[in-house]
Amino acid sequence: MKNNNYLAVSLLAVAILAGCNSIPKNSSLADAHNRYDNARSNPQVTNLAAIELKDAGDTLSRADNALKKGESAATVDQLAYVAKQQVAIAEETAKRKTAEMAVANSAAQRDQVRLEARTEEAEAAKRQAAIAEQIIDQQAVALAEASVNAERDQQRFEASRAESDAAKERAARAQQAAEEKAAELEAIRASSNRDQARFDALAAEADAAKQQAAMAQEIADQKEAELAEVKADAQRDQAIIVQQQMQLNELQAKKTDRGMVITLGDVLFSSGKAQLQPGGMRNVQKLADFLKQYPQHKILIEGYTDSKGSSSLNQDLSERRADAVRAALVNKGISADRIATRGYGEEFPIASNDTAASRQLNRRVEIILSDDNGTILAR
Amino acid sequence: MHHSALVSVTAAIILAGCASTPPPTEQMAISRAAVSNANSAGGNEYAPLQYKSAMEKMDAAERAMADKNYVRARQLAEEAQVDAKLAEMMARSAKAQKAADALQDDIRVLRQEIDRKSN
Question: Measured between CB atoms, does A13 come within 8 Å of chain B?
């Protein structure tokens, strides 16, 4: 404590002395004083670099003393220089400490900011946790609801299962009843089937009988039709026979053992000639019409003479006369295949050759009709 | 005790004026240490003028010691000491300022991050 007092007294003395020497006689010392005064007026320096500033002050006092004692300018300058540098050191020290305090403050500030950052992160995490908790709560509520629903559904399920069981039982009873009915129905149906089979068999028999009856009727009808046809044919044949008979009568046909024979008389030919006369031609026309109407018939034309003249001449004449008739028929459109001819001369007379009238009967042409098969019995 | 100290200081000042001055070995050591500290603190980089001056004055003091010009050697050594001390202080304050600026940057960046996050 005494030491401090003494220091304060000595500083005061220095100040008084400095004040007394208000007119500096050394420019570098004066410069050092100015710098020192500036530094002292800076509270940053006085507060943060008091020791360094005191060192500068001490040196400055030594310089002042040296000047007062008349020491060399070099000595005073040197002390003034040291003092000036010590002032600068004090100022620089103050700056350094300010910066270091700023560093410390900044570090604290930075830690504060970091803390804020952490706090913010923690808050964010808390918020997220709160949201998560909220979600969990919601899920818990949903779960509770679901649980209630599930329980209700279970009850419904059990109720409906009971209903279902009851329904099943009813169904089973109904099924049983249905089966019994079905069995009865089956029995009835079996009996019905048997009856039906019987009925079917009888019906089939009836059908067969009907069919046979129908067939018999048909045959009967057919027979009747045939009979009618035969009757019609018979009637027609009868008509044909009648007609034929009439035509044959017209041709003056005679029924003989050899069949129907038509005799064309002597008048058709001139004596000793084989030329047909116009009256003979009319008979040939009738014969041609007949042959056209009955194509199944063939004819044999036979020529005869009387006994006058030589027999060879008569033979030739008979043949020529038969041929003349044949030529006339062919000329009227009758096929030559159907007509055969033959000459017999003076043979087979039908009368005596004594009188003229009977000889005329012997001069003749006979036409023999075949039967329906075209057969002619030869003489 | 205090009186004797004051007397001895006064005697030293009086003696400095004398021709028969002893070699300032202690001062030289103190000055060399100061220059070395300035170098370590980065005086060459942050206060090149002051550091160069200290180096040159130290060299000159060494030469004065060799010439046995002890008065001159002490003076030069004392100037070299304060120059070196100033260089060291300048380097240290510059570094401290840098650190403070870097921290301010950090804080600014952090605040921006917080603003982004909270937005």
Answer: no
